[in-house]
Amino acid sequence: MNPIKRALVAGLTLIAVPAAVAVGDVAGAADRPGAHHASDSALVRAFASVNRDTPWKLTSKLKLDFPTFHTEGIAFAGDRVFLSAVEILAPTVKYPAPVDGYDRTPGKGIGHLFVMDRQGNLEQDIVLGEGDAYHPGGIDFDGENIWVPVAEYRPDSSAIIYRIDAKTLRVHKQFEVKDHFGGIVLDKTTGHLVGNTWGSRRFAEWNRKGKQLSTWPNTSYFIDYQDCQYVPAGKMLCGGVTNLPQTPSAGGPPATYELGGMAMIDLKSHRVLRELPFQQFSTAGHVATRNPLKLAVTGKELTMWAAPDNGEEGNGTEILTYRATLKQ
């Protein structure tokens, strides 16, 4: 075996990063991202103990050797890794003035849900979407199914909510909703689904048949949420990004920089419990929390998996692993 690669206990084969950063092992299969068990509530406590001064160490990279286009969400289910992505065939174009309630053309594209083994080998490419709905968003695993919203690539539009059996890979079109929803989780305390709209400005809650039960505004403007995960009990952890203008000497508003971060949200009270900036960058120069993101806690370590780079950028899409040591 190439000495720069090694298999982890959790099953991921990762490429070691340069310098003196060692590739560590995830201490036991029970702590794989996507495992749902009572100790997962430790993630709430772990996230509450880190802050903007917490040192995160990039421990490994996994390069994906197939076309990944623009990555969106990631989920881990047993021995499989799921990655959503959108392939743009014709980009959207802004209208001079709104047309039929839309601010831009629908564009054209293909929605992908890539199914990989833990070594990053592609097992299946599941194409999702219909008509103008071709943009998969952030995804999550509920212990049995992968939930994927596929929306039009424009705000105030529509989306299809899909459920994919993580074992058989059978695709179920669960329901359709009005508005662009770019992320979704299943709240196990209620059995309801929770999604966030374009820019995560609004949340909605549905039953499994698609009946909207409630909706509420996002009172935080820190970041736009891109990919979320359910956290027992009754919480949601999201990662995301916002583009902020530079100073005049650095190029002004056109020369934006990416502010990355994460947020823990209570699904009952709808409050943002904690927000945390994250400013480490990928091979292509994107902040790590830009799109696909999942976290897990193992003992005294908080681990984050991210895949911020598109397939045509930098070194292509890499699954990055960061670790932070938790304080006593």
List keywords for this structure.
328 residues, mainly beta, Neuraminidase, 6-stranded antiparallel sheet, 5-stranded antiparallel sheet, 1 helix, 2% helix, 51% strand, globular, disordered N terminus
Quick recap:
The protein has 328 residues and is an all-beta fold. Helices cover 2% and strands 51% of the residues.
Describe the protein in words.
This protein has about 325 residues and is mainly β. It has a single domain, classed as Neuraminidase (6 Propeller). About 0% of the residues lie in helices and about 50% in strands. The chain has 1 helix and 25 strands. The protein has one helix at about 40-50, and strands at about 5, 15, 55-65, 70-75, 80-90, 95-100, 100-105, 110-115, 120-130, 135, 140, 145-150, 160-165, 170-180, 180-185, 190-195, 200-205, 210-215, 225-230, 235-245, 255-265, 270-275, 295-300, 300-305, 320-325. The strands form 6 sheets. It has a 6-stranded antiparallel beta sheet, with helices on one face. Strands 10, 11, 12, 13 and 14 form a 5-stranded antiparallel beta sheet that branches. A hairpin with a 2-residue loop joins strand 6 (about 95-100) and strand 7. The longest helix is centred in the first third of the chain and has 8 residues, at about 40-50. The radius of gyration is 19 Å and the shape is globular. The chain starts with a strand and ends with a strand. The model is unreliable at about 1-30 and about 35-40 (pLDDT under 50).
